[in-house]
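Now for our target.
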Amino acid sequence: MANNSNAFPALDTSSGRVGAGGGIGMSPTGSNAGAVNGNGAGVAANYMSPLPVGHQQDLNFLYGQIQELSEILRANREKVNVITRTAEEVAKRQNGAGGDAAVTEGESVQDADKARIRELERDLAKANRIISLYKHEQTENTNLIAAYEDAMGTATEQIRNYCGDIETRFLMQRKHYNQLLQQEKDEHLESRLDRDKWHAQALRLCEMIRTANRLREDEWGEEYAIISGLQSEVRCLRRCLGMEAEKAEEETGWPYLQTAPLNDQS
């Protein structure tokens, strides 16, 4: 906890505390509220500025109470000074009294002075009691203000750390999501490139097969035509001679014509 004795300036009940017109100093504002606490509160005010509305009102109220206490203390001090001066005059009067003629008058004056002194002593005791109560209240208020400032500083630091952690986790999640998204895009692009590559290779292979088949047909086309013509002639001659038609597998040109598109089964 911060040093409670530095939470507010020391009360000055002398005449120098009050201005020439009897006015009291201005209440602390947000700019100097942190400066009154010389042991840590000024640092807390750096990150607590500007002060919340309720906090500023509480400080103004406490400051007004302290100013009122200062006025009462000043009035009590003046009363004590009056009592002291009266007591000194009574003592001087008692010490300076002489002669038998003055004894009777001195006794009456002394009785009146004693009564006056007793009355002033009672007033002084009451004033001292009030002063002690106000001092105790000032100490309690100072402790409360210091505790409030410490609690506000701790709460502000905890809130700042919590918000920082939340923001850090959010940024980490967003970064992780972006990484996963980029990875998915890269994999998708790679799969598309692979598919296009295989598709192009398949098209190329089909084209090569068609070209090879066409070249093969072009290479043996004439021979297949001759063999097919001879085989057709053989079939025709067999029919003319009344011979049975051979099965396709038993024909002489079947080994050559079985895979040829010119195979004529008629």
